[in-house]
Amino acid sequence: MKQIQILLKEYRETATANGTKIHLNGVVDKDVYNITAPFKWLGKEFIAGRVESRDSELAEVHFFEKTAEDNYQIVENTTVLALQDPFVTFVQGELILGGVEVFEKETDSTKLDWRTNLYRAKSLTQFEKILTGPIGMKDLRIKELADGRILVLT
What we know:
By secondary structure, the protein is mainly β. It has one helix spanning 4-14, and strands spanning 23-25, 31-33, 39-41, 44-52, 60-68, 71-74, 84-91, 94-105, 108-123, 126-132, 141-144, 150-153. β3 and β4 (44-52) form a beta hairpin.
């Protein structure tokens, strides 16, 4: 068995840079991060991203449309969901967008609680909430299996 130092040395000698810097344009005075992977929908390519001020946990999910290689522009006049950490999947051909809702803790207004919500998207302005996870649960995901069943991961 190889020691970690040898494996690391071998990796560094043979690794190539696989990353790509993308530009998310159109957001002023806020950070965009925890983006989804690019996805094709409605004949276009999009990324959904968490947008928030540095001093706040109250994020919004915005959509960015690919405009050129490695460039995405915020899409104006869309539904903005009050969520952190967006993720997307497709189930029966429909886009499912999820994220973490953050809200005031019921027993202590100085603290926050959270839960995962899932939405079915008909368009960039039409979202229907289809699932609300339990309080305190992030990382709830769904996936359509090859046989049509839907896998729920917690």
